[in-house]
Amino acid sequence: MRGNGKVRPETVGKILIVAMIALFACGAGTALAATGGAPTPSGSPPPPGSGSGAPSTAPSAGTLTLVAAETKPHKSFYFGYRYPKLNFTIGSPQPLNDIRIDVVTATGEIVRTFYRDDLAPNLPYTIRWDGTTAEGMPARNGKYSFRISPQIPAPAARKATASTTFSLGFTLYGYTFPILGAHDYGGSAGRFGASRSGHTHQGQDVMAACGLPLVAARGGRVQYSRYDGNAGNYIVIDGKGTPNDFAYMHLAEPSPLKEGETVRTGQPIGIVGDTGDAQGCHLHFEIWSAPGWYEGGSPFDPLPELMKWDKYS
Length: 313
Ligand SMILES: [Zn+2]
Prior knowledge:
The chain has 2 domains: 31-173, Sandwich (Immunoglobulin-like), CATH 2.60.40; 183-312, Glucose Permease (Domain IIA). It is 6% helix and 36% strand.
């Protein structure tokens, strides 16, 4: 809502192109940096992202410049530790300005919009995007940017300023690779569907040294955190925003996470081991379709997913 006494020019000011910054390159950060570097499980859900706000009923903005803008981190994970965050400061001859901040895909599709009314120039503002679309669904993997522009009411005005926006790029992923350290996918015996006595292998074995940290490929809710003679120490996570369950087996120690706890994408869930019926240190990893792990779903080959996550994690 607008305050009284606001200076309202007759026409919406033309926006100056000050910056078009594309920071699409993925940093060569370490795996720990990629997951936010959280040293211990937090057991708490991520704080909520910024609210969407509502468009002004009578949008107005002065001639905008971008005094400062920064997007951090450049790589984020859905339901993870650090949401994509935009810090920005506008310049304007007008004391109050109605701004919109769009989250835009690489092809220009707007997946989420934040409306901020009556922003003052030369003050810092922050937007934190929780990775959900306007419909509340997890956004797809990919490159995005924050786009800062005025709220323009008239189609003619919108057309005139269509290219005068400020973009700040980042990447959002739905999953991270679950092992923090060197690993390989072993031989055919470790593949999904490989023959076992009396059954077939329901997951993919990922060979890695005992003691390497394991993190949640996708956060959510801890469904099981137990010991079993075959699985050893294992944990099953009901993935937030997905119909799937994710199982991690043969952990060297019981997971520090308890059943029912919230776990974030990238949160430590234990360490690689060889407990239970395991030959050599490795992670046995399963993905189950809805409704989930031993509750009516079916396991499917997780290797294509693992290899995809491996590439960018
Ligand atoms: Zn296995």
